[in-house]
Fold:
Amino acid sequence: MGNQQGKRLIWKRLGLGFSGLLLFALSLELMKEGAGGLAPLLRGHLAVTNTADSMGFGWLMAYLILSGSPVAAAAVALLSADALSPLQAFTMVAGSRLGASLVVLLVGFIYALRGHERWTALTAGVLSLILTGSIQLVALPIGLLILSLGWLNHLSLPALERLAAGVNRGLDPLMTPLAVFLPDWALFVAGVGLAMFSFRLFDRALPQVRLEKTNFDQISRLVYRPEVMFLMGLAITLVTMSVSISVGILVPLSARGYIRRENIIPYILGANISTLADTLVAAALLGDHWAVVVVVTHMACAALVSLLIVLLAYQSYERGVSNALAWITRRRRNFVLFLGIILVVPVVLILL
Structure:
């Protein structure tokens, strides 16, 4: 009986994962089809005309929907429809990464409201925002330079391109009637909503881990090396296809004392690299060469900066991050100032 239930659960998870993939592919086609009609809106009413605007736009969108992956997917869809330039799409993807960290902070708030020590519960969220911001600050100019010089212009991923062509042919019968009856803006909005729903299906397809039934407290003694935690963050995010999930699980682990701050830092650095794996799949499914170049450039820059930190300057970096965290959590006034900065900066970028 138990084996039958286990098999049914496995097939259910596989079904959810496959359904999520198909819906994700459909959402991309909807966004691509509707993105062309959004170009006048972006350049006129929303004034998304330069790289700062697109970065702030992606940042705020990720805040509003509490997820960075659908926003990054929207960025490559807008690029594929020529509503954004490659440089603008690159900065919008970077903005989506910055905004995605807010959900980890919100999870910390929830844990604090449930009775856990406030600053311990908020540590993972604050660290996620600090680390993501510091990596993007360095990776952003490097990526813009690489794209401007065209170093990766001839990049090709034939296996993904063949897969994308097959999936898109299968979706054509669905896309044709939708494109006829729905206006462009509705197609794009429906695509974003469908992308969010597909990620929820992916979440449900993943096995649930009950911390109280594991020996994580014993495992934590084995992962003090930054390199190990870096690889763990990279691998878990690659499997879950969501940095919100992979970093979000740090909140209960940190609140219960299973994992310490020095373990969290390299873990988040690794997670920030593989979090764009789903966006790379999105770029390939769109069949757009420039979308793939933009995503690979972003992943390469994030990986380069993060690896240099972990391998060559980790102690200094950890000390600087720890000092920033200590200042932010020392007083409520400092924390409110920090929140104000991360909420105001994307608005300022749009207004530039």
About this structure: The chain has one domain: 2-206+219-351.
